[in-house]
Design brief:
360 residues; alpha+beta; Aminopeptidase; Alpha-Beta Plaits; four-stranded antiparallel beta sheet; 17 strands; 29% helix; globular
Length: 360
């Protein structure tokens, strides 16, 4: 199957984050079985979502993991010119939800399977779910790796980086704050408990922590060069003349390497408002001297970039003892936008990169 045809098949599955992905993963599994590869489908605790892992070559030998997620963000923007889940061509552009982030890389991997088999190398394919919700799926896959293969030599996470290797990104943690009040008429607030007011100590703590971090530990590879906190959403209340009985807010922290992103939210949690963890993943920091960085420099012809602002699953692989690097086709600036696209040229360059990785 050509890379373009594979990408069209993958885009046609509306695998929006947080929804079932069994049909897509079964399609991938059938594709691999058709080439004599026995994939492992790993059901997540949600019950309707799967990770997939497969090895080309000898699983007892160390090999590189080619890693991607198959979930996409929703595509409800009115600016789409056509069905976002039908791949559309416009000159060199291949347009569709997930074409860039990151079904393009997955299509390049899957369409390169015959060449990977012929190379004789050991290469692993790891596909995950719900990355867009804070890397919720891949930890279950990583936990299963010791039973699936020998310790991998490295992991390439194919997030869009214009096929420039990337050594580092920040870690992230996110919480939802929840407050319960008691509704009443706004003329008698003494008869109610205002749930929005109850959030204020935690929100104030988040804002104060955000300002304090500006003067905290610095890492010049990032913009901004310090860890950050932001309040992303605040919801509550039914009408101005009703004392709100329920309120929520979502707060995220992004941490430079060496800082636990969960710890940054400590002052917010200490404010005494009920909270639940939404997601958490560590920062990535691959040493430039690591053999994986040298490999990716050779196969791409590009000197690695020090860091990017967005987060990926790579930090979780590194945390598990597997050297990890980011390198994939497309530009992150096109992700999460209407008319998302990958160019045909970028898709074929990704295929060439993958074949070069197998060749070593």
């Amino acid at each position: 199957m050509t890379p373009e045809a594979m990408l069209a098949r993958l885009v046609a599955f509306p695998s929006v984050v947080g929804t079932p992905n069994g049909a897509l993963m079964e399609f991938v599994a059938d594709h691999l079985r058709g080439h004599g590869i026995a994939p492992t489908l790993l059901r997540g605790p949600e019950g309707d979502r799967f990770n997939l892992f497969a090895t080309i070559g000898d699983p007892s030998r160390a090999g590189v993991i080619l890693s991607g997620h198959v979930d996409v963000v929703p595509a409800g923007e009115p600016e789409w010119l056509a069905d976002p889940f039908t791949l559309r061509e416009d000159g060199d552009r291949l347009i569709g939800r997930g074409a860039c982030d990151m079904k393009g890389f997955v299509a390049a991997v899957l369409s390169s399977v015959p060449e990977l088999i012929a190379s004789g190398a050991t290469v692993h394919i790891a596909l995950s779910y719900d990355e867009e919700a804070g890397c919720r799926g891949v930890p279950h896959l990583i936990a299963a790796l010791p039973d699936l293969c020998a310790p991998p030599s490295g992991c390439i996470v194919g997030e869009p980086s214009r096929l420039v290797p990337v050594l580092a990104h920040k870690g992230k943690a996110a919480i939802r704050l929840i407050s319960k009040g008691r509704p009443a008429h706004s003329s008698r607030p003494d008869l109610g408990i205002n749930a929005i007011h109850a959030l204020l100590p935690a929100l104030t703590a988040a804002e104060a922590q955000a300002r304090a971090l500006e003067d905290g530990p610095q890492d010049a590879r990032f913009v901004p060069p310090y860890s950050t906190i932001q309040i992303g959403t605040v919801k509550g209340g039914q009408a101005l003349n009703i004392v709100p009985g329920h309120a929520e807010a979502e707060v995220e922290a992004r941490a430079i390497h060496g800082v636990d992103p969960r710890s940054l939210l400590g002052p917010v949690l200490a404010a005494g408002v009920a909270a639940e963890w939404l997601s958490s993943y560590p920062a990535l920091a691959l040493d430039r001297a690591d053999p994986l960085a040298d490999l990716m420099t050779r196969v791409t012809g590009q000197e690695p970039l020090g860091a990017v602002s967005y987060g990926t699953e790579a930090g979780l692989f590194q945390q598990a003892g597997i050297p990890a690097i980011i390198c994939g086709p497309g530009d992150i600036a096109r992700a999460h936008r209407p008319e998302e696209y990958l160019t045909r040229t970028e898709l074929h360059e990704a295929c060439a990169m993958i074949r070069a990785v197998a060749a070593g």
